[in-house]
Amino acid sequence: MATEVYLVRHGETMFNQLNKVQGWCDSPLTVKGIDDLKRTARALSQVHFDNMYSSDLKRAIDTVHLMKDANVVSKIGKIRKLPEFREVFFGSFEGDDIDQTWIQIAEEAGLGPERDVQKIINQVGIYRFREATKRADPRHLAENTEELDERMTRGIENLQDLTKNEDRVLLVSHGDFIKTLAIKYWDKSDGKHDIEFPNNGSVTRGILHKDGQFEIVDYNKDAENL
Predict the structure, then answer these.
(1) Where on this chain does substrate bind (predicted)?
(2) Could you identify which of 78, 119, 176, 211 might form a hypothetical disulfide with 88, taking C-beta atoms 3.0 to 4.6 angstroms apart as the criterion?
């Protein structure tokens, strides 16, 4: 039996608003973030889910409860938290100014002092960007490509086991993590190059097949387009 997975990105947070690096560190949802999520929750209120899951970070947990409270056709019990679906870890850069962080990473990648992350990734590629992030991190704690891929694979395998008797589930995760999943599992991605960053409160839909394969079938859909 295949399981349909609705991947929702959490709402805007204070660190998003303040332009700070936010991976495993956390900050509360903003008023705008909550308002945007309410639109997503309304759009999904008539979609039946057998279960709802979340990353174990608070911004994701707060988001999944907004989805749960608005849904009128699902009977959801306790939310299970899945640490494998946390955001990408940025090591020592967590909480730092995001522009200054990108400049350090760009210089480590052999570029000039560039603060536009999309331009950096376009020039060096997403995988070299991850490696440069780990090297630029003074403590070298940031996740590189291999570490992140291992965590994604472990997360999909765990989700496969948890949802084997479920037809449709909702899972709240994070922008860079969802984007990286799509780079690997979306047929509109070539598996190597960057794609657009998902919006706060957007929905990405995937299918977990009974043979263990995972595929993304819709990416970064806003509430108005669900």
Answers:
(1) 9-16, 59
(2) 176
- Span of 21-25, 185-189, 190-194 with lowest mean pLDDT: 190-194
Six-digit token pair at 108? 């480590």
CA separation for the pair 226, 223 (Å, rounded): 5
Average pLDDT, the chain: 96
Q: How many domains does the chain have?
A: 2
Same domain, 75 and 149: yes
Question: Can you point out the beta strands (E) in 55-213?
Answer: 80-81, 168-173, 203-208
Strand order in the sheet with 80-81: 80-81, 51-54, 168-173, 3-9, 203-208, 214-221
> What is the pLDDT at residue 212?
87
Extract the tokens encoding 106. 């760009």
- The pLDDT tens digits for 13-66 are 999 999 999 999 999 999 999 999 999 999 999 999 999 999 999 999 999 999
Cross-strand bridge partners of residue 80 = 53
Cα 83-163-53 angle, rounded to 5 deg:
40
